[in-house]
Design goal:
The chain is an alpha+beta fold. The protein has 7 helices and 4 strands; from the N terminus they run H-E-H-E-H-H-E-E-H-H-H.
Length: about 120
């Protein structure tokens, strides 16, 4: 068994985003966010999700939201342009991850989204 994979976030440009991959916008200055992004990178063995720190000047335009709003939670921008925040972003990410159907099913249980939004 190999050790942890150390992959750096790949830069995202708007042309690459169009129709090709979801983009997770996260706060690179937040320790909690960095830990979860590290876990996500290990889980995303096929590199299907692009990572973009909200500190990148292109993040607000990509999400179509002001930086102040992006600072409140992680945001997922799907290839079709739909934008999800917080626990809704986490639920949507599951569609792109191996075995993601299981946590996505858990998000569908009554009350789970309300608890996840508070976390």
């Amino acid at each position: 068994m190999s050790g942890p994979v150390d992959r750096k976030p790949r830069p995202v440009d708007r042309g690459e985003h169009n129709g090709s991959a979801p983009v997770l916008i996260y706060d690179a200055s937040c320790g909690f966010c960095r830990r979860w992004v590290g876990r996500l990178k290990r889980w995303d063995r096929r590199d299907r999700i692009r990572l973009l720190p909200l500190q990148d000047a292109t993040a607000p335009a990509l999400a179509g939201r002001p930086r102040r709003e992006l600072e409140g939670a992680a945001h997922l921008v799907r290839p079709d342009g739909a934008v999800f925040a917080g626990a809704h972003a986490a639920r949507e990410l599951c569609a792109y991850l191996p075995g993601g159907w299981l946590p996505k099913a858990c998000f569908a249980l009554p009350g789970v989204m309300a608890v996840a939004e508070r976390a």
